[in-house]
Amino acid sequence: MILSGREIQKRIESADITCTPFDPDLINPNSIDLTLGESLLRYRDDVIDPRVEPEVTEITIPPDGLVLDAMSFSLGASREIVGSTEFVPMVHAKSSTARAGLFVHVTADLIDIGSVGTVTFQLFATLPLRVFPGMRIGQMTFWKPQGEIELYSGKYQGSKGPRKSEIYRDRYWETWEGLPS
Predict the structure, then answer these.
(1) Which CATH superfamily is domain 5-45+52-146 in?
(2) Which DSSP string do the residues of 23-65 spell out, in sequence order?
(3) Can you spell out the DSSP letters for 123-146?
(4) Do the beta carbons of residue 134 and residue 66 sit within 8 Å?
């Protein structure tokens, strides 16, 4: 079951859903828009090795915007702190943003129940595009789970601002045979 926009607003007002700051103008028929924060991360490594913590550069987006180059990848974050212990949030791109050539959070759209923090957006520009702090860049829907709930307590809990990949902390490669650790 997906929540309607009016139900999302009711659940924010009753604290079943966290959305801070909350702007009722961001409510849609069955989602709430998320806005872009004031900084981006860009990876500095030529090759990302999932066994090693990646190096990043943080870039502040000026008020007059920042141009994302075509075929470039950045990490941004929502201004809003969002999440729920009652509902499963899902992040989606805004169709208007996608039509302008920016892929937002195409993968990893499912947010674990109990996760509360800013949303890190994976931004892939297919065309040169200017982004601005506060622009509507994504949207979040909320779904009612069925069954016993186990709340998220993982490595991205309480995120503030864009977060680089922490896949290196998983150490799953140590079980692969024949690969150096």
Answers:
(1) Deoxyuridine triphosphatase (dUTPase) (2.70.40.10)
(2) -GGGB-SS-EEEEB-SEEEEE--SS--TTSPPPEEEEEPPTT-
(3) EEESS-EEE-TT-EEEEEEEE---
(4) no
Q: Give the angle subtended at the CA of 142 by the CAs of 124 and 123, to the nearest 5°.
A: 5
Give the count of beta carbons closer than 10 Å to the beta carbon of residue 65. Answer: 13
State the pLDDT at residue 181: 55
* pTM, rounded to two decimals: 0.90
With a cut of 50, list the residues of the chain below it in pLDDT.
none
State how far the Cα of 110 lies from the Cα of 105, in Å rounded to an integer: 10
Cβ atoms of residues 175 and 35 within 8 Å: no
Supply the pLDDT for residue 4.
98
CB atoms within 10 A of CB 177: 4
